[in-house]
Amino acid sequence: MSRKTRILSAFVLIALAACGGGTGPYGSKSPPPPPPANTVAATAGLAFTPNPLTVNSGENVTFAFGAVAHNVTFDTPGAATPADIPGNNSNVSIQRTFTTSGTYQFHCTIHPGMAGSVVVR
C-alpha cells in the first residue's frame, strides 16, 4: 500500500469515527422526551405544537417558549377566553386556564402565519 493510500485511509477512518453515534448528549439515538401533558410548545421552527391541543374544561395549559421569542394572542376574545400572553417571551413557560368548552384559536403576532388552537371538551 502506498504512503498516500495509507494517509487517505487513516483520514477516512478518523472522519468516520468522529461522526459515529454514541450514547452522550450529542450522539444519542433515542428521541427527545415528550412535552408534559397539556403543553403547547412555541418552537424555533415557528410552529405551535401540538396543534390542536385537546384538554378538559377547567384544566391549565402551559405555553412553553424556547430560545426564540413568541407570544400568544387569542383570535376571538370573550368572557371565557384566557388572557393573551403579550411581549417577547423566551425561555419561559406561562399557564392559562380554560374553563369553558369550545375551540380557542390563537396566533403569534411576532411571526405571521404562526397559529394554533386549544380544543376544550
Distance between the termini: 72 Å
Spatial ordering of strands, largest sheet: 3-9-8-5-6
Give the CATH level 1 class of one domain: Mainly Beta
Low-confidence stretches: none
Q: Helix share of residues?
A: 10-25%
> What structural class do the secondary elements suggest?
mainly beta
Radius of gyration, taken over Cα atoms and rounded to an integer in Å? 22 Å
Provide mean pLDDT, rounded: 85
Q: Mind telling me which CATH architecture of one domain this is?
A: Sandwich
**Structure summary, number of beta strands:** 9
Can you give keywords for this protein?
single chain; mainly beta; 14% helix; 4-stranded mixed β-sheet; elongated; 121 residues; 9 strands; 37% strand; Immunoglobulin-like
Written account of the structure:
This protein has 121 residues and is mainly β. The chain has a domain at 38-121: Immunoglobulin-like, CATH 2.60.40.420. Helix content is 14%, strand content 37%. The protein has 1 helix and 9 strands, in the order αβββββββββ. The radius of gyration is 22 Å and the shape is elongated. The mean pLDDT is 85.
Which secondary structure elements does this structure contain, and how are they paired or packed?
Layout: H1 3-19, E1 39-42, E2 48-49, E3 53-55, E4 59-65, E5 70-74, E6 85-89, E7 92-98, E8 102-107, E9 115-120
Parallel strand pairs: 1-4, 3-9
Antiparallel strand pairs: 1-2, 4-7, 5-6, 5-8, 8-9
Task: Give a nutshell description of this structure.
The chain has 121 residues and is mainly beta. The protein is built from one helix and nine strands; from the N terminus they run H-E-E-E-E-E-E-E-E-E.
